[in-house]
Specification:
Layout (H helix, E strand, L loop, with lengths): L1 H21 L9 E5 L11 H10 L3 E8 L5 E3 L20 H4 L19 H8 L5 E6 L9 H11 L6 E5 L2 H10 L4 E6 L6 H7 L4 E4 L9 H7 L3 E4 L5 H10 L3 E4 L2 H8 L6
Parallel strand pairs: 1-2, 1-9, 2-4, 4-5, 5-6, 6-7, 7-8, 8-9
Antiparallel strand pairs: 2-3
């Protein structure tokens, strides 16, 4: 019931900002479009085909998730287990990279016949020649992968992409570890439900952005307060066109979506200053 009420409140916000737009108020800033786990509405999530499609569509960036294998390799996959997205079973941490490569990660789009699990290195190699940003989510909320923060910072530096990476996590200790190791790294706190004073919390801990679930933007003065404190708002997962419009008209800074083509069409339909 709470989720339903939240949806209605978001719809009301959208109606209000639409009325404001009709009165002549322009949207505040053009949001970036991030392909959530790649163009995952069309290709298997967190795979090279999904990332290639995001590049082809012209997304501003990709969002992805990293875990660490038994032999210390950084791999791109959302869940701690491989069960949902592949034809295998078990925890990522219990497999070597070679063992993980034996499975096919096309379960979310079986029409794509082959989708190996990618390493983070392979994604960097794909994205480096483009102008895309990479939002790297560290999946450390359940498994505390030893040294994962240092590993990903070192790899980012190896590819010379420090200015094109945003690090985020639901585990805010991981985000703080990133900041400890590299104070110049761009970071964002991921979160979901009902956290008090998030703009102040983000500012206090020195992150550059908040990454709220979409329904969190309905809190009174949330967007205004974030921007007053110099925080960007990159929200997820925005898949319906009405909420893509709402994100534009509320002045959010990033739209994380499974459908980057649809979001880009809507973003580009506005006259931005």
């Amino acid at each position: 019931m709470w989720r339903l009420n939240a949806a209605w409140k978001l719809l009301k916000i959208w109606i209000d900002v639409t009325k404001a737009r009709k009165r002549g108020n322009k949207p505040m800033n053009k949001p970036l479009v991030f392909a959530h786990r790649g163009a995952s509405g069309y290709f298997p999530e967190n795979t090279i085909p999904a990332f290639k499609e995001a590049v082809r569509m012209g997304a501003d960036g990709i969002e992805l998730d990293i875990h660490k294998t038994k032999d210390g390799q950084l791999v791109v996959i959302h869940d701690e287990k491989i069960d949902r997205t592949s034809n295998g079973k078990g925890d990522v941490k219990d497999f070597t990279l070679e063992e993980l490569r034996k499975f096919n990660y096309n379960a979310t789009h079986p029409e794509c016949k082959e989708a190996p699990i990618p390493t983070m290195r392979e994604v960097f190699e794909l994205i480096k020649p483009t102008n895309l940003i990479i939002n790297i989510e560290l999946k450390t909320g359940i498994v505390f992968y030893e040294g994962i923060e240092a590993d990903i910072l070192a790899m980012t530096k190896e590819f010379g992409m420090e200015d094109r990476v945003i690090y985020s996590s639901f585990n805010h200790y991981s985000v703080m570890k990133i900041k400890e190791l590299d104070p110049t790294a761009r970071t964002g706190f991921l979160y979901m439900d009902g956290t008090l004073n998030m703009p102040e919390y983000g500012k206090e801990h020195g992150v550059e952005a908040l990454h709220p679930a979409l329904y969190n933007v309905q809190y009174p003065n949330y967007v205004q307060r974030c921007h007053e404190l110099g925080l960007k708002i990159n929200t997820w997962t925005v898949n319906s066109k009405q909420y893509m419009h709402m994100a534009c008209e509320m002045g959010l800074d990033g739209i994380i979506t499974n459908y980057p083509d649809k979001a880009l069409e809507i973003v580009n339909s506005y006259n931005w200053d």
